[in-house]
Automatic annotation (TrEMBL):
Cellular component terms per the entry's GO annotation: bacterial nucleoid
InterPro entries: ARFGAP/RecO, DNA_rep/recomb_RecO_N, NA-bd_OB-fold, RecO, RecO_C
Coiled coil spans: none
Family to which this protein belongs: Belongs to the RecO family.
Known role: Involved in DNA repair and RecF pathway recombination.
Protein name (database record): DNA repair protein RecO
Organism: Fontibacillus solani
Protein's UniProt keywords contain Methyltransferase: no
Domain DNA replication/recombination mediator RecO N-terminal: 1-78
Length: 249
């Protein structure tokens, strides 16, 4: 059967002497693997379509639920700038690997697709990369069914002025329920406001935002705890981001 889909390349790997297999995140068919014959050759008409982060229209033939074979395609947005900048490439790679490891094959992908598309567009447009990634992480947690809640206490449902956040329990703890998680974070008002905003905001609506370095450092710690506790994924791309931070490259 012949398919025509819009998709984003989230993974690209060499296959055989001159071919590539790309994994696409699509809006209508979830996550799909497609073989691009001859794509490793410099003059291949498919070479550009298989580059990481590329957003395009892909036409491929597939029987049953196996690997598709690319017939033709057209680039909608190459995201060339993301591949040319070390930091942007690292953030974009993390966004793609996170989605690839979390989204199951054939899972309906409309929400995943729109949020990844908005993430890559935000990175390309020069918005704060760290804020984009943390908002994206929140959307991934929500789509995977692990989205935290910050309006009321996750334990008793009570509202108060507490700014205590539990990664293990998945959200805010009021002052009376703080004892349920000794490892919970007491965060600053700036970090708590951002977490509450991230819970409700679609990534497509994110504008330019300025956040203090101290707030971003705290936000990174909290979001890392949520990601580790709720998803527990070991990602090569995140390790590389950590190395960039460690050596201040």
């Amino acid at each position: 059967m012949l398919y025509r889909v819009e998709g984003i390349v989230i993974r690209s790997m060499d296959y055989g002497e001159g071919n590539k297999i790309v994994t696409l995140c699509t809006e209508t068919h979830g996550k799909i693997g497609v073989l691009a014959r001859g794509a490793k050759k410099l003059k291949s008409r498919h070479a550009a379509l298989t580059q990481p982060f590329t957003y395009g229209e892909y036409v491929f033939y597939r029987q049953n639920n196996g690997l598709g074979t690319l017939n033709q395609g057209e680039i909608i947005e190459s995201h060339f700038s993301l591949r040319e900048d070390l930091f942007l490439a690292a953030y974009a790679s993390y966004a793609c690997e996170l989605l690839d490891r979390t989204l199951q094959d054939e899972e309906v992908g409309q929400f995943w697709f729109t949020q990844l598309k908005a993430c890559l567009e935000g990175l390309s447009s020069g918005k704060d990369s760290q804020i984009i990634i943390h908002l994206y992480e929140m959307k991934v947690l929500q789509a995977a069914g692990y989205g935290p809640s910050f309006d009321t206490c996750i334990s008793c449902g009570r509202e108060d002025d507490s700014m205590t956040v539990s990664a293990r329990l998945g959200g805010k703890l009021c002052s009376r329920c703080r004892y349920h998680d000794p490892a919970a974070f007491n965060v600053s008002s700036g970090t708590y406001k951002l977490l509450s905003l991230f819970e409700k905001m679609d990534l497509r609506r994110l504008g330019n935002i300025e956040v203090k370095d101290t707030t971003k450092t705290e936000l990174k710690t909290v979001m890392r705890a949520f990601m580790d506790m709720q998803l527990g994924l070991k990602l090569k791309s995140r390790h590389f981001l950590d190395q960039l931070d460690k050596y201040e490259i």
